[in-house]
């Protein structure tokens, strides 16, 4: 608390060339204007297309039906229109549908035996409020053909505890073609999005691609003014086409079976996995925040509707299977052993098990993915598993089912410690 | 509204700027009124009803200040004293109600083992700052240092948007003359160039540097909450990362405030002057949150007897002032402990200086290496304080501090053994334990810490960079301008500033609040 500073205006030593200030300002604001204006204009141009349209959805779906390649139409966050068209196209050849949010997108047709031919209908940010009516729609309209419904119960991100009740869903082609499923985006949102770092990085990559191409003008036109890229091959030989303006040339999107390639992300390496588990099990993590306030109380509105669906579907000769998606190895254990979330996890599992037994529904409990031999590298993040992990989980499930070791309730059954 | 938001940068600022200088051509008073109105709008963006509270506080203090000034002029000492006590008491009561009621009731509940009965009182943004600014005004009116000010200027003085939310806490004697000067209302390219550059430096510090290291901090400070004892390395890495986040966040905010104000032709006092270069804790507090230190020195420390030659009142004032400083930062026991620690540090520093003077003469000059060691020691002591400042509870902080003192063992993460090659092998052979770690101290964090420490220890600060253009008030007399990075309005530096601005702007989408908003 002693004086070390002087108060008052410090006299400035006035250097020569102060008249340079207007030029400085002109260059500074000019550079900012040109750079941000250019980015804004180009990204708005791209954004106009990245918001998607009914025509684009139809073109992407038709292209996939024709080529069995990898694609998705923009926007990346709204998949229902595209997946609905795909579901209608695929109905003649499938007998099972997977419903859920993005955590179920890793589930491929390869995880099922030959007699179960699925289409993965899971979509980004798709809670039980919409997956239940989706499943009801499919059971009601395609029940004579579709005999398996697999529905994700994503407790780790709080889905079964959410408030409200499931609505109704029209998955007809007409509803999609009306464009009702496409989201409205405000101008403010568009502008902010256009100058955000992910968009700027994407634009930079796009412009680099244009710069490297032989016919720069044609490449620029294709990138900024045409509906899609040309066809190209993924590393596994599958054909791909990009309709979105982001994630170009990396085979990002949905396969023919509806599963996601997740090539726009990177696999978790084991060292980072430890840190992820630690952070995800902390009281302030999004997982803890999603589950702890619920006290482990499942929303009865969801489970009453699911029970009705299971009963009605069973009468049609179909089987409803629920599944808790795999979590990164040791995360469930960490949550279950934590002071803040342990009781909630235990209650959730006990409630799911009791409900499944009562309603005669099997619930595949894949949360502790390490029990099925999943490893950290088979995850995109804490709760998005790649197909390899899902194949391990479902591989064991089908084997146990064939051996008659699968009973209604949680599978694998709760251990004594878990069923407290 | 946040300085680091699109709405502020692309709408609020340009509109306020252009209209201000257009109105200023016709009337300076109207222009000041416009700036005050926009400042209130800026405040109301967060929570409109609290504009009423701010306005009521402004009106009350203006009326009281003028009444006190008149009483002082007429020599009515008794009336002057009572009015001052009433005004300051009301201000403190308001601050106490909004800031400390929840804390008080929580503790009463704990003591009485009663159920939760705390009313959830929302802390009005910036209340500590605008209350302190006005207490200083009232006290100065009491001392006869206040002249007749127009209400518009006073309103602008308190609500002036660059400083309203998180300071700098300025003095009416610094600001009122500037609001009255004709030159303030004349558009000057140099002011705009200097102001925009300072604003861009601050924006870059906040968006790229502070927000860049921020993701690593939470996980490390969360460890004690999850019942995990951090290792020696995790504890130091976490607290160091937080100290850098806090510095770049708050000094970035202060730079933005100073820059914005300069664009309007008004100079604000600096708030930071490379605090981590300080060689003792007293010097650190002269360089850290300078305007708060000045307020505490002038309105708490000195009136309490801190300037007396007698050691007892001096030490007592020092200690009590720092405890108050801790409590000012927030209602919680962690802040009380932070304040106690700072008070203890300053008392030790004072005693050490007295002892050195006795042993080594009047002004012992430290050697270069002595200064380096002192600087490191000061920084380490500061970090121990920050462990309390950032933790959510005192027990959490104690776990962290125990780890910092090596009481939870000393071990390096095993993945460094492979990474360090021969050095790792040699260390392992020499007995340094490499054990399984939680992966919290990764390369990314280590790189951030190294880069940011290099900046705070070796790079010039904003006012040194801008030194030739008198960037702000309250500059230290002995401040050396930057030798290599001195700013000039050259085309190359304009391009560089544009580059920094673009880097910050494209990262605004992940915008986060300033840490000091909560105080």
The number of helical segments of chain A is 14
Summarize the main sheet of chain A.
6 strands, parallel
Helicity range of the residues of chain B? 55-70%
Query: What is the mean predicted local confidence, pLDDT of chain B?
Result: 88
Major interchain interface with per-chain residue totals: A-B, 51 and 68 residues
Q: Name the helix and strand elements of chain B from N-terminus to C-terminus, one letter apiece.
A: HHHHHHHHHHHHHHHHEHHEHHH
Percent range for β-strand residues of chain A: 5-15%
Mean pLDDT of chain A: 88
First and last CA, distance of chain A? 60 Å
CATH topology of the domain at 79-181 and 266-411 in chain A: Rossmann fold
Description:
The complex is a heterodimer of chains A (about 425) and B (about 525). Chain A has helices spanning about 20-50, 55-65, 80-90, 130-140, 175, 185-195, 195-210, 215-225, 270-280, 285-290, 300-315, 330-335, 340-360, 385-400, and strands at about 95-100, 120, 150, 230-235, 240, 320-325, 360-365, 410. Chain A has about 425 residues and is an alpha/beta fold. The longest helix of chain A is centred in the first third of the chain and has 31 residues, at about 20-50. The radius of gyration of chain A is 26 Å and the shape is globular. Chain B is mainly alpha-helical and about 525 residues long. Chain B is built from 21 helices and two strands. In chain B, helix 10 packs across helix 16 and helix 12 (about 290-300) packs across helix 13 (about 310-330). The model of chain B has no long low-confidence stretch (mean pLDDT about 90). The chains are: A alpha/beta (about 425), B mainly alpha (about 525). At the A-B interface, helix 1, helix 6, helix 7 and helix 9 of A face helix 9, helix 11, helix 12, helix 13 and helix 21 of B.
């Amino acid at each position: 608390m002693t004086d070390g500073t002087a108060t008052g205006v410090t006299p400035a030593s006035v250097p020569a060339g102060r008249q340079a200030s207007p030029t400085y300002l002109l260059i500074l604001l000019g550079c900012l204007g040109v750079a941000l204006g250019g980015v804004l204009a180009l990204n708005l141009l791209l954004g106009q297309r990245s918001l998607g349209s009914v025509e684009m959805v139809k073109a992407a779906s038709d292209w996939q039906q024709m080529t069995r390649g990898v694609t998705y139409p923009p926007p990346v966050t709204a998949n229902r229109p595209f997946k609905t068209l795909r579901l209608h196209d695929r109905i003649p050849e499938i007998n099972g549908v997977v419903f859920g949010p993005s955590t179920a997108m890793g589930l491929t047709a390869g995880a099922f035996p030959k007699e179960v031919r699925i289409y993965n209908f899971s979509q980004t940010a798709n809670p039980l409020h919409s997956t239940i009516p989706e499943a009801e729609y499919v059971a009601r309209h395609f029940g004579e053909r579709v005999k398996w419904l697999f529905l994700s119960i994503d407790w780790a991100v709080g889905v079964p505890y959410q408030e409200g009740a499931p609505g109704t869903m029209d998955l007809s082609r007409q509803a999609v073609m009306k464009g009702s499923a496409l989201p409205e985006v405000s101008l403010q949102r568009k502008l902010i999005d256009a100058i955000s770092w992910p968009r700027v990085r994407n634009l930079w990559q796009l412009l680099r691609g244009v710069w490297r191409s032989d016919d720069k003008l044609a490449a620029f036109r294709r990138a900024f003014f045409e509906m899609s890229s040309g066809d190209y091959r993924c590393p596994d030989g599958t054909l791909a086409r990009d309709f979105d303006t982001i994630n170009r040339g990396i085979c990002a999107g949905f396969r023919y079976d509806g599963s996601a390639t997740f090539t726009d992300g990177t696999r978790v390496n084991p060292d980072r996995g430890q840190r992820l588990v630690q952070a995800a099990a902390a009281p302030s993590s999004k997982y803890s925040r999603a589950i702890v306030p619920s006290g482990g109380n499942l929303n009865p509105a969801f489970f009453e509707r699911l029970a009705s669906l299971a009963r009605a579907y069973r009468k049609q000769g179909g089987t409803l299977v629920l599944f808790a998606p795999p979590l990164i190895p040791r995360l469930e254990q960490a949550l279950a052993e934590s002071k803040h979330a342990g009781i909630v996890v235990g209650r959730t599992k006990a409630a799911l098990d009791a409900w499944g037994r009562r309603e005669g529904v099997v619930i595949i409990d894949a949360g502790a993915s390490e029990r099925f031999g999943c490893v950290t590298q088979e995850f995109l993040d804490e709760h998005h598993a790649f197909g390899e992990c899902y194949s391990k989980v479902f591989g064991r499930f089908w084997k146990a089912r064939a051996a008659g070791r699968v009973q209604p309730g949680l599978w694998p059954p709760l251990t004594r410690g878990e069923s407290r | 509204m946040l300085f680091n938001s699109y709405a502020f940068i692309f709408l609020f600022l340009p509109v306020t700027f252009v209209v201000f200088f257009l109105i200023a051509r016709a009337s300076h008073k109207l222009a000041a009124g416009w700036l005050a109105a926009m400042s209130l709008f800026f405040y109301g963006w967060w929570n409109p009803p609290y504009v009423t509270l701010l306005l009521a506080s402004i009106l009350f203090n203006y009326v009281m200040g003028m009444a006190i000034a008149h009483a002082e002029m007429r020599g009515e000492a008794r009336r002057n004293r009572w009015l001052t006590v009433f005004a300051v008491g009301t201000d403190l009561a308001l601050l106490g109600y909004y800031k400390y009621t929840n804390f008080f009731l929580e503790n009463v509940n704990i003591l009485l083992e009663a159920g939760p009965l705390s009313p959830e009182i929302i802390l009005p943004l910036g209340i500590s700052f605008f209350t302190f600014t006005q207490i200083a005004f009232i006290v100065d009116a009491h001392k006869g240092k206040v002249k007749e000010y127009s209400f518009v200027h006073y309103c602008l003085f308190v609500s002036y948007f660059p400083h309203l939310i998180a300071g700098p806490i300025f003095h009416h004697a610094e600001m009122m003359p500037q609001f009255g000067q004709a030159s303030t209302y004349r558009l000057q390219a140099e002011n705009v160039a200097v102001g925009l550059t300072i604003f861009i430096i601050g924006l870059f510090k906040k968006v790229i540097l502070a927000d860049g290291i921020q993701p690593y901090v939470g996980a490390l400070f969360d460890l004690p909450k999850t019942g995990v004892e951090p290792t020696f390395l995790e504890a130091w890495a976490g607290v160091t990362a937080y100290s850098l986040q806090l510095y770049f966040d708050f000094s970035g905010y202060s730079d933005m405030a100073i820059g914005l104000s300069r664009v309007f032709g008004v100079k604000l006092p600096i708030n930071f002057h490379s605090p981590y270069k300080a060689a003792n804790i007293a010097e650190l507090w002269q360089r850290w949150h300078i305007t708060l230190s000045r307020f505490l020195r002038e309105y708490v420390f000195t009136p309490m007897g801190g300037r007396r030659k007698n050691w007892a009142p001096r030490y007592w004032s020092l200690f009590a002032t720092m405890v108050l400083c801790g409590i000012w930062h927030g209602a919680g026991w962690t802040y009380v402990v932070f304040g106690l620690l700072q008070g203890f540090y300053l008392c030790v520093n004072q005693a050490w200086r007295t002892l050195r003077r006795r042993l080594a003469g009047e002004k012992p000059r430290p050697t270069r290496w002595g200064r380096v060691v002192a600087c490191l020691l000061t920084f380490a002591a500061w970090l121990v304080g920050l462990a309390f400042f950032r933790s959510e509870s005192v027990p959490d902080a104690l776990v962290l501090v125990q780890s910092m003192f090596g009481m939870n063992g000393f071990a390096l993460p095993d993945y460094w053994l492979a990474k360090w090659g021969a050095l790792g092998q040699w260390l392992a052979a020499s007995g340094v334990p490499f054990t399984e770690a939680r992966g919290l101290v990764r390369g990314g964090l280590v790189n951030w810490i190294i880069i940011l420490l290099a900046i705070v220890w070796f790079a010039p600060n904003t006012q040194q960079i801008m030194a030739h253009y008198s960037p702000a008030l309250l500059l230290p007399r002995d401040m050396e301008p930057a030798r290599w990075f001195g700013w000039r309005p050259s085309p190359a530096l304009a391009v560089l500033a544009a580059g920094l601005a673009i880097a910050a702007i494209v990262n605004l989408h992940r915008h986060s609040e300033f840490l000091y908003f909560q105080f």
